Amino acid sequence: MSERVIPLVDQRLRALAATVPNQPIAATGLLSDSLGRPLSDLRISVTDRCNFRCNYCMPKEVFNKDYAYLPHGDLLNFEEITRLAKVFVAHGVRKIRLTGGEPLLRKNLEILVDQLANIQTPDGTPLDLTLTTNGSLLARKAKSLKDAGLNRVTVSLDGLDDAVFRAMNDVDFPVSDVLDGIAAAKDAGLGLDANGLFTGLKVNMVVKRRTNVDQILPMARHFRGSGITLRFIEYMDVGATNGWCMDDVLPSAEVIRHIQQEFTLVALDASKLGETAQRWGYANASGVFDPALGEVGVISSVTQAFCRDCNRARLSTEGKLYLCLFATQGYDLRSLLRSSNSPETQATDADIASAIGHIWNKRDDRYSELRASMPADNAADGSPTARRVEMSYIGG
After folding, report:
1. pTM of the predicted model as reported, rounded to 2 decimal places
2. Of 74, 163, 193, 200, which one has the greatest count of Cβ atoms within 10 A?
């Protein structure tokens, strides 16, 4: 049997300079890109490490014991992350999501959560501070994260069947421990709104054909009426190591049809601009959406691109700004943060704000809309071209 060989080009080593423009760009909260899309959502990766080896994200044959993770000195420290977050908030960001890798592997993450939770927005509205996790460490961390100021959490869970789940995470981790983490998050009040409803506690399931399609209905049954929103994500071509193939994608429309075999669903309006998930509510016996039964969402980056409303920027763990989940290069903000301590050369917050504004103003990324017309990852001679960054590096 032939062995699958995955060429790996380390995009962490590639970066564009984040330059301060000659004409200052003030942080007015009204920043928009070349397609008129505002900047309102910042995703911050706090580590490139993960304790799972899901084959759609960090396949074991690449991310093995010999893989060189970023050295600690290259990572942004919590004060640097908070400084950048304040600049992004001044530009209009109102939602910050902590991600990874697995963010709960970052030591003392509660300290960063506390620092971010205390950032003041120009209009006085609190930040929406959330985190995405595989749930493996959530049972022991949920209360301290909530106490530090975390508002919400999203847990990745790709099936309820223990054998299927262990095979997908590829480290033999039991599904029961993730379910315990979800229960702990609920007990801690993560995702609880002012009306006492768990509107912000979510579970994400990546659906891969021939792998976990049979888990769609069990997952729907389990979380229906629980107060937890279940979202199904199409298997995406993120990075260059997961061996992505369109044949492995189960379109979201088919996911909905699977659920409708047993439950009546009604389409719901988007809750806000730039929302990635299409919402479907469980109906009661009269065919009307019943909030007590909850809802599901589908995220269809492959079959129904939502680039035109994308308002998200991504900050890698060592300070590169990425404008798209499928980007090939980021902009080096760390160099501005760590510029000489000499007053004549040190970058001020206003300088950093101008650099970010200049980068966002030029943004025209819409990979998912253009996917079908994009060139292959290899040039005609077989040499690697500009490969997309790995999801484990900049977060989902």
Report:
1. 0.90
2. 200
